[in-house]
Amino acid sequence: MKNKCNIQVGGIGLTLYTEYDEAYVGALAEDVSTQLETLLKNAPRSSKLDAALLMLLDLTDANKKLEAENGKLKRELESVKLDLEIATIEKEKLAGKAAN
Predict the structure, then answer these.
(1) How far apart are CA 16 and CA 29, in angstroms?
(2) CB of 5 within 8 A of CB of 18?
(3) Cα–Cα distance between 92 and 42 in angstroms, integer?
(4) DSSP three-state, residue 11
(5) Is the pLDDT of residue 15 over 90?
(6) Which of 5, 6, 86, 91 makes an SS bond possible with 22, Cβ 3.0 to 4.6 Å?
(7) Is residue 1 pLDDT above 80, yes or no?
(8) Could you report the per-residue pLDDT of 33-59, keeping only the tens digit for each?
(9) Distance between the two ends of the chain, CA-based, in angstroms?
């Protein structure tokens, strides 16, 4: 079920329909507003749009880096699983030879 959320982001009111809880969406909006305020303080000649686009670029960069790291960790996990399977098979073979 979709929840109707009325939020403020950077002083701009938005109404969203989302599966997420209004408190969660409100917290996200507060975080974004805080980041926008920080950017605008550091670059007072920038517009809210400039700051929002810079945030979007930063978040996209962070997301791409996390995706790459996630892929690397998945490959490492698969390698460790394979090593464990090999070790288990070798252990079973040794146990079978010792029983003979």
Answers:
(1) 11
(2) yes
(3) 64
(4) coil
(5) yes
(6) 5
(7) no
(8) 999 999 999 998 999 999 999 999 999
(9) 63
